[in-house]
Amino acid sequence: MNKILKEGITLIHEHTTIDLSKVKNNDDCNLNCMNETIEEFKELYKLGVRNIIDVTAKGMGRNLEYVDKVSKESNINIVCSTGYYKEPFLPQEVYENDIETLSEIMVKELLIGMENTNKKAGLIGEIGTSNNAFNEDEIKVFKASIIAQKKVGCVISTHTTLSTMAIEQANFFIENNVNPNKVIIGHQDLKGDFDQITKLIDLGFYVGFDTIGKNNYFLDEERANLIYKLQETNRIDKVCLSLDITRKSNMKYKGGIGYSYLFTDFIPLLKKHGVSDESINLMLIENPKRLFGEAL
Hints:
Layout: E1 9-14, E2 18-19, H1 21-24, E3 30-31, H2 34-46, E4 49-54, H3 64-74, E5 77-79, E6 81-82, H4 92-96, H5 99-111, E7 123-129, H6 136-152, E8 155-160, H7 166-175, E9 183-185, H8 194-202, E10 206-209, H9 220-232, E11 239-241, H10 261-272, H11 277-291
Parallel strand pairs: 1-4, 4-5, 6-7, 7-8, 8-9, 9-10, 10-11
Antiparallel strand pairs: 2-3
């Protein structure tokens, strides 16, 4: 695949816009605040961010026109995804089509363009599993994604609900002969399972510490401590960072932490815990480049 990332910081797991409001029956889950997003992305640009990996799959409110406008206004390279999320957010085409057809849809979006445009997807994601469950239709999506990944050689980004089913995902990829170096298993910072994280890394997978700032799930103090332990055991070269902002209430204009929190609050916390500048550079710049096959 062609070069996807610009030189600079990459946030590995975000949503420029996302709409899960109908299923969740909560308008806060419709991230449709374009002007406010543009302002926050402009601030990110000043902080050195050049790439945002947008893992808004089909069925999550993917909106290419919206993303394109935000990208142009903020000057940030936004990499869009193909694929399908998880139950109960899967679109009808997952149920109506077989595995091979779903894989062909993904390949088309990766190589030709998405939704009758010439804008190509840069990865497959976020494909997901439910809380302590890997149900039949989610397995169907994973199988289709694996077929497409092998044809194109792209990255797969996954969702694990509350960090569960990560080992099951990893085993499924390995059983289907997927290169772990092309897979990032997401949301591994929602519980403090250091053994699980180290097992994933030792198997060759990248892991996402991609819910930074969501202290209502897991404290950032604990996230920082886990990252320090990964640094000290020489595993930091498989860790990537992001915030996974999905709600209007996460945004600054609503009193939330906003995207800059990663830089203003979490990175100083990492340094306080003994995480080095070299490790921070790896997680924000070098590891994403290596994941996408663009390491120097």
